[in-house]
Amino acid sequence: MYRFHPSVKYDAAYPTQAEIKEQIASLWKRYDLQKHTTFNTPITSVKQTKNGRWIINNDESKYGRFDGIIASVGVCGDPKMPPLPDQEKFKGQIYHSSELDGKSVEGKKVLIIGGGASAIEALEFAVKNHAAEIDVLSRSDKWVIPRNVFVQSLLAMNILGQETSLSWIPESLLRKFFYRDLSDIAPSGGLFTGTPMANSELFEQIRQGKARWLRGDIVSAEADGIRFNFRSRGVPKGGPGHEALVPGDVVIMATGFKRPSLSFLPGDAFEEPYSPPSWYLQTFPPKYPSICANNSTYVNAIGTVGNMHIGIYTRFLLMFLTDPLSRPSEGRMKTWIDFTRLMKKMSPVGAFDFFTYTELIYWFVFCIVVNPFRWKWAPFVLFGIGYMLPLEVVKQEEAFRKELKRQH
Hints:
- By secondary structure, this protein is α/β, with parallel strands linked by helices.
- Helix content is about 30%, strand content about 15%.
- The protein is built from 11 helices and 16 strands.
- The chain has helices at about 15-30, 60-65, 115-130, 150-155, 170-180, 200-205, 310-320, 330-345, 360-370, 380-385, 390-405, and strands spanning about 45-50, 55, 65, 70, 95, 110-115, 135-140, 145, 195-200, 210-220, 225-230, 240-245, 250-255, 290, 300, 355.
- This is FAD/NAD(P)-binding domain-containing protein.
């Protein structure tokens, strides 16, 4: 999941924070990035000059000028740590899922609050560190799909990129062949309305008795556990159920993270009706093709995100910067956004509130396939194959095309 470079290898799907830092530092040193890195620098603004270059924090003398901006702040900022009702009564330890490295849960009863990707990560941590019992207390059922590139890519190729009347087919197949005897914890529908969790080990851990996945609501914390309102399948959050104490020694709050702000970008990048996530390819503000808000604007998604689309969008930006002829105009970027809204007008969520690779497919057709001058970029954009043309060559090619156009 965290394989951000071909040379990075991990033994586990969820490596520790220390392992990730070690790999990042290794690449940073290998490519001699020290001289291009400035630490402890909060970004308050980016401003574009008349010639199209960018100035950081209004300080050209200190930072220089740049051709493009990659706003890679992501979607996870500071941890969210909402207090539990009567939390002071609990006698054990309470941790956020982001601070588990170095913590000991061996032989303890672990209660995980939450039902998203952080909860699965915390569960795997507890299993690996030999917890005696593990209970995940989740307010709702969320889709879990196999950690398999082929399966995830098939789901991401949903022809309309949204929930349709045929969505029951992949949902039924997942229940039958993936959930099997655990179909009670599968959602009743909506596979293409919220981000599913990719995990191939969770159900085996439950089947082996190493963990339980409990549906319901937190009532209160008590000295030796959490009082929990167990709800039946299909009963909404806060609905009727039966209360019981779930004993525990350690509580892990898998309650997510605050979303980082993109407010340092120019204010007109957020003008309606083209504000994030309604940007070109959900990543580029229509007014600024040299800004790439990579993995920072998505609401929900399905697919092998992280391993594929982050690299693709970065190569889009490199293509736009290197080859001016490939750079879309503001009007064309807005047309793509409007077309996507039309394609997904029947979606139960907003047109850009759910991401699949369908958007990339028709972008590829409209932008590259129909334009022979851009064919050279196809292998690079999709797979990173090929090399970037020197800027001078691009300028000569552009001048040649203008001359041909003038003559004809």
